[in-house]
Amino acid sequence: MLGIIPQLMLLSILAFLIMKVAPGDPVASLVGGREFMTEADYQRVSRNLGLDRPVLVQYGIWFENILNGDWGRSIADGREIRGIVLEGLRVTLVLVGFSWLTITLLAIGAGYWAGTRAHSWPDYVISTLALVSFATPAFWLGLILILIFSVRLEWLPSAGQSTLGREGGLADQAAHLVLPVMTIVLTHVGPCIRLVRGSVRDVLSADFFRAARARGLARTTLILRYLLPNALTPFITWAGFSFPLLVGGIFIVEWVFGWPGIGRLFLQAAISRNYPLLMAVVLVTGVLVIIGNLVADLLVAWLNPKLRRGHGR
Amino acid sequence: MNTHPPLLSVSNLKSGYFTRHGTISAVDGVSFDLHRGHMVGIVGESGSGKSTLALSLLGLLERPGRVVEGEIRFAGKNLRALNEKEWRAVRGRRIGMIFQSPESSFNPLATLGQQMCEALMTHQGLSQASAREKAERALAMVGMPQPKEILKSHAFELSGGMCQRAALGLALSLNPALLLADEPTASLDVLAREEMIGLFKEMKKRLNLSMVIISHDLGLIGKLAERTLVMYAGKIVEAGPTWQVLGTPRHPYTRGLLACQPCLDLEPQPIPAMTGVPPSLGKQVTGCRFAPRCRWAGSRCMSDDAFQLRPVLANHHVACVKSEGRDDVF
Ligand SMILES: Nc1ncnc2c1ncn2[C@@H]1O[C@H](COP(=O)(O)OP(=O)(O)O)[C@@H](O)[C@H]1O
Ligand SMILES: [Mg+2]
What we know:
Chain A is an all-alpha fold. Chain A has helices spanning 4-21, 26-31, 39-49, 55-67, 81-115, 121-135, 138-152, 170-204, 207-214, 219-241, 243-256, 262-271, 275-303, 305-312.
């Protein structure tokens, strides 16, 4: 739990270093080049910006500004970085949220279904599809889906999160979500299904499950209190650990589908050398990943009485 | 003798595992009766089909295993005719079962209280509060010192002996007419084993409990069971009153078991007093299945009916051609 504080510190130092080692002189870039300012002006501006202080002090000031909500301005267009990044984060979370929900439902549903029918042909079909899904690159699948559903069939939009001029429409936004969510889900759900299938099988053959059956409990009790909680613990743990993977996948999908989220911001900032923006995006993405892991940890601890008791005392 | 119809009557029960590599006849024509308030002990090496028999009695065999043939009459009902829903009204409620590994009798994610109450509420329609009360009383009955605290614990927080007690308490709280126990003391230490034996004795007297006890522990069987069945390769090779079977065993296999009681605990090593290991139950063999390991085996042991139970005394049956007639054949 307390482990996240050093993680956050490390992350912020990393983000700060990106800015420091980035090529280019921030003072000179203010006026378009060193040759446009006198030595005295240069010294003065440097002092005003705090750039003459030791690096450690600069880091402290920068970190304090971040905490105070002053994230600086984008080099490209001078807009407030905080607004840009938080809007990108919101848009990304919509995508992550829907994808994660779909992955979870599919993993539980298909994993349970295949696990209770192990070695029947539906199980083989699901397992094969899961393997294929795992081996498919998101970039490639995204383009294929666009080709089929947008270009050929013209059923679904292929870019952005809404049609220009129709920003408010829920149906329009939902239609824009379909292909990116589908791409993320199809490329990530495979291992999840396999995992749930495996743990469902483990529980079904566990001694405690047989003991519960020997007590004559109702089917729903067996499934809801014995099978699912025990079978889903490994999935939740894994979902937490693989969260960075999901975020990585989202970056690519946002790029392919022009989804104006934090992943696309990252790639744009990197390409245009917009370092203050890049730094903020790295920081926010890192925080997102850390929070994701933390939530998974808490959830697993809450589910597992062994850990729960251990922490309680 | 007993004139009432038996509580449990098993006749010619056959169960097998149908795997890709062939059929394993784990229980191959087992018959026995059990009367109310009595205990029958089942002994035999690992792999002789004891657990499969117990699971068959409760309809718990799962793929690739299944009951193939025979009849299980319990309190006048043919259990083999039950569907899954009807089974649920028998399991726990009429026939309880406890297993070898006590910790794994319980859901690792739930407290013992939750699991006891859930069973009581399912079978007796109790409210949460009265189920909890009844669970407490059941734990107190099996000699648990602080039932309230135990109900709040998880299985991993208790010792093996405590868990087995709790499992027995849970099973008995549902007032079953019959209790199946599959190696109930095998994973316990000596002290916990003694306590468990005492507890079984007490419960048998107090509740007029009928039990099928499967165990390697001939000491336990000797102290508790009226009748003892010796199982080998899916068949009963000797059946009779416990004092006769353990006191004057007739089958060479039973003699082997008795000759080396300690080795039974260290399964599945071969028994030194007998050479060889139990046969694989996959292939059909004619004649006595124990013959390859038997030092007294002769040509008569290869006849088709050599492995059939035959009476040697009233109530005492042995599946050995040499047990007929004279006492001193071996
Ligand atoms: N799930 C299973 N699949 C295939 N064979 C099994 C299975 N369970 C048990 N067997 C076989 O059935 C036989 C009897 O096993 P079991 O009833 O467990 O014996 P015991 O309880 O006397 O040790 C053994 O040969 C064992 O290998
Ligand atoms: Mg066994």
